[in-house]
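FAQ: What does the model actually see?

It sees only this:
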Amino acid sequence: LVYAAFKNTMSSKDADLGDKLSAPPDFNGPTSKRRMTDILCTVLLWCMWITMTGLGLYAMQQGDYRLILYPLDYDGNLCGTNKGQVDMTDYPYLYYVNDFSGGVCVKECPKLENLTDVKTLVTYSGLYQVDGSYITSDDIAIADYSYNNDTLACTETLCYPNGDPEESFTSYGVNMGKGFSYYAMDTYELMWRCVFTDEARDAVDAIVNPNDQNNLTSVIDTMATQNEQIKQGYSIWNNLYGDLWVARYYILGLGFGAPLVVGFVYSLFLRIPLVLPFMVWFSVAATIAIVFGGAYYAGELAAEWENADPPMYTDDNIKVAQYGSYALYAFGGLLVIVFLFMRKRILLAMGCVKEASKAILRLPLIIVFPVIQALGFAAFMTIWTVYCAYLASMGEFKTQQIDTVPGLFISVRYFEFSDFIKQCGWFMLFCFFWSGQFIIAIGEIIFAMSISKWYFARDKKKVGSGAVISSIWTSIWYHTGTAAFGSLIIAIFQMIRAVIAYLQKKADEMDSSLAKAILCCLQCVVLCFEKIFKFINKNAYIQTAIFGSSFCKSAKEAYCLIMRNAARIIAITYVSGGVVFVGKMFITTLTTGAAYFVLDNELRDELYSNIGPLFFIALSAWFISGMFMGVFDMGIATILQCFVADEEMYGDSQSMYAEGSLKNWVNDHGKSSEKRGCMD
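And it is asked to produce this:
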């Protein structure tokens, strides 16, 4: 489509594509006479960072990150901390008492061999026991709430009429999970919350509601938006968070360190022309083999767990393994189809990468720069995450009195954000978008400048890593503003998409089909514009790297240059993505596959599911692999633009900087691609 658009525009008589480039008398590659470009955008970028820092420091003074990590009891105390009216440092866990999020802080989540003691109630004021109870205060150590004179306390009339468990369930105190007390039950800990086990819930159901006359199953399933939200909803959130916390060091090592090593080694081999074909086809075969191997392994594992005697894993774990196997088989089949359709494109792409590899082979330091980018992004993310954590803790405690039965009010505390905090949250999201895109943009300028210095050298063998070092200095000193300008445009589009995503969520809540359809279309349109501007930006950065011009001028010159040579540039740019895609898939698949076996061997009994950690490892590996493969992608784009600029300035004469093999390759593949069509 892009190719067709360019071709149609080329055929328009009204198209003003400007004059062809002419070589200055003293032209000797990327200009040495530079000035600082787009200074205003540099100032805006620094203003954003300073504002973000000021906001973060203010949040660190006013907020407390523990508020978003630790649970809140019914009276506004933060379990496990001294935040609140009482020091709860020795009571880090929350035991839920009702389905309004009301709970009490306990020293440990109770582990009961008999699953439950229905003669013992956990209440807002401590333990309440009747004849026949067997647990002690050591089994469930509750914090001292005697300081609160307004706390409701259990009596036989309120909580346990006639000592009958069935009557207690409908009493004012228990009130079918809507009161100020609930039964002592076996639990497990998730993110400092005590979650009722399935077996304990069934045991309580059998005792206090044997005929299901009060629909206890439904009551307990919704117990504390937490108990089923923690049990099921938290399988998406709290279970996920708990798994991420347990596996945090593995995620850091396997999601950040491993892709860096694999991506670096892969890039080193990929830049060797003789090794390139083997690496590409080996990557294709290995990627497919890893996916199908993982599918087979997951299926065998599910069967082993299902046939285990005695059972060692829950039905949920078995289903996850089975569905994971099916999903991997489907994904593997899809990859086979994609690679079959891409085989011609991959063959052409190897030629693109081979030409770019000649430059990268002479600039070995350029392979290291993605590591620097990744470290820079990690440093920013660390600071940004800390600021956001403190900002999210700046809400206000609110008290809600719930009239569950006439004359009996249940007190529940909750957290509410002001409009100021919400606006600050949107601003922090914008800071994330702009800073992330800026790191990518400044890297692209550095790549383009380094490769253009190699291209516009008469003796290319003399160009080395010194060109990369000088490009880093020149790009940061002179063209930070240009990188800021281009990244600001992308960040604005991403921010618009985030707002649309927020509105889509609201439309889902309203169940408005028309609104959802309109917002979905808007999301697609904005995404298309974002992709278009990313293409414009990349080529504008190349112009800036060569001629030292500002963003707007560079974008215009790049557009005109590409339009005058649309057939070759668009066709070759299209096919060049083949090897980049293969490389990203290989690095991501290899890293994620290795991570699965490491997590399975080291943390099998500690994780609810390894899906969450593996997802974040795969996501991190995909982005980091994109940084390494982006070197080749940017190298191809830079060489192509340098070539057509070189050709316009010097014609087909001997004065051209392009080597004979490069001229023949670009002309042959550009023309043949035009004849076949971009989608062949």
